[in-house]
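Researcher: Structure prediction, please.
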Amino acid sequence: MTWPAGLRLPPRFVRGFGLCSDDTRIFQRSRFMIYLSLCLLGFLLPSFSPGAAEGGAPKPTVRDKCPVCGMFVSKYPDWTTAILFKDGSHVFFDGAKDMFKYLLDSKRYDPAKKTEDIQAIMVMDYYGLSWIDARRAWYVLGSDVFGPMGRELIPLEKEADAKEFMKDHKGIQIIRFPEVNMGVIKTLD
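Model: Predicted structure follows.
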């Protein structure tokens, strides 16, 4: 290969592209290692992505509406909750209260879906603003914090956070997922 007159390439550049015969083997090994690293990274990244542990809750679009109240969900990302179905479909809600209304009376809101079709139920942790499993969350009732639809069940990942939130925001009670029923929901409407 000939270079234009006066152009001198640094030795590192020449070696880096395998233009020197004595470094060709080193270049080929490093290129293979880069290729191997990228392949491994491609396989590992999806398993470590945010939300993968929680079932990979998708992000609501500007068109997603709460099936209970009809509000556009993407306007309230800190309050978003979601139900993911085994067939890959999902529904978003603008708060835990509407999500529980849907779960407790799903025939009214979507007769085609059954409880057995649910893969995951996700809520947004109030303090961490990250997806958590709704079945493992702690919910604070009767606080002075209001959601998009008024009084709300405030989901928290840890019991200690729920106790702190209850103290700081005048909450009345801490409950778990199985304890939520229509009577509890009616106290919030």
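Model: Residues 42 and 99 are 35 Å apart (CA to CA).
Researcher: Thanks, that helps.
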